[in-house]
Amino acid sequence: MPIMSSDDFTVHDDDCDEVGDGMPISDLPDEVTSIDDLECQCWNEYDEIAEI
Questions:
Q1: HSE-up of 11 (CA within 13 Å, CB side)?
Q2: Which of 44, 10, 30 is nearest to 2 (CA)?
Q3: pLDDT tens across 7-51, in order?
Q4: With b meaning 16 or more CB within 10 Å and e meaning fewer, what string describes 10-46?
Q5: How much is the pTM?
Q6: Domain boundaries, the chain
Q7: Phi, psi (5° rounding) for residue 48?
Q8: DSSP one-letter code for 19
């Protein structure tokens, strides 16, 4: 499940060490249209958005 960081509103995987405090979200933000839109390295294990 994706988690949105409360510090800078970036989206992370639920087991990411960089997320810090955050809030679980059920869907990725509308601005995320490809895996390349997710900045954190925690998403490197995924090949495409559909896997999330």
A1: 18
A2: 10
A3: 888 999 988 988 888 999 999 999 999 999 999 999 999 999 999
A4: bbbbeebeebeebeeeeeeeeebeeeeebeeebbeee
A5: 0.83
A6: 3-51
A7: -155, 160
A8: -
